[in-house]
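Supplementary notes for students who missed Thursday's class. We covered one full example, reproduced here. Read the sequence, then the structure, then the short commentary at the end.
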Amino acid sequence: MLNLSNLRIVFLRSFIFFACCVVLQAKAATTSEMQNALRTCQTEFSDDASRRLVCFDEVAQQYASGPAVAAIHSSKQAALVKTVDAKTGYLARKWHLNAQDELHFTDLESHQLNYIVAAYSNNPNDVPTSPSRPNTQDRDLNNNDLHFQISLKTQLLNLSDWLPENQWVHSARLWGAYTQQSFWQVYSASQSRPMRDHNYSPELILSLGLNKPGEPKQWTVMPDMLNLGVVHESNGRSEPLSRSWSRVYLQGGWQLNDRYSLLFRPWWRIPESKSNDDNPDISKYMGYGDAVLRWDNEANTTAASVTLRNNLRSDNKGYVKFDVQYKPLKSESVRFYAMLASGYGVSLLDYNQAQTMFGIGFAIGE
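Structure (token representation):
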């Protein structure tokens, strides 16, 4: 006959055994779910090492939260892919909208695209002139240029940690940027291959990553980021070929979906004195802002964009540029590049002369 004490011991041992079995099964299930999540990272991002690493980090963070939380997340592998796409979309990776991204002053990154192309223009500006800088000197330009652009930026300050608690802004960074476009008449051997023009653009940008509270429909038009910038552009020439202007702009960025992004940037020209203004009518031709629509393929090996400007006047002077980048090699940065631009302002010196320019070559960055 079993006494009460023995019954308690048997019950306690049975309970401990049952609890151990439950814990072991839970751990086995969690391990299996984590393996499935890691497998999702490998299969969905097999051609993109950077996005695959972000996916692995996301899985690690989820499972560090504990089995219960991990099980909830890992039951929806599609949600994992969506999270990675949000963190590695064009705007997020270009402007580091994730507040946890660590950058240093010496970490130079591409600002606009860096490229070199063999270019052809159907209407080179042989006698550039402006209302305040009359000119009669004929430069007798060749239709072909070697055209290249160097554009870099660096983070000056990460202001994200200084942000007060709020539901609107989740990251803030101050950037310094510099862009230079050059047009080299390398095919004009008879004229000693002169430089047709250089355009220099230093820039200061405050970039904000924005939240859309709860993603309600009324917030869908809210941008994912805002850039407040001031930029000066000049060609460094003496009169009568000197051209320059300075602007303040507000740029909104929308990550429309995993593949498409939109940038819209109105600007205001900072006034200059009449005697110093090289190009008083530049807004008539360059307009009051620009818009860029970009597409990336799923593997991030191909990208295409269209840039638009218009003066929004009855005379309808504008500019449109199409470009395509293709990454055929395993290199993360070097790409084939083709561009087609038409309208006013292909270069600063050509702000008031329309032309169509086609170029093909190589690009670095994005």
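Commentary. The longest helix spans residues 4-44. Residues 45 and 114 are 26 Å apart (CA to CA). If anything here is unclear, bring it to office hours.
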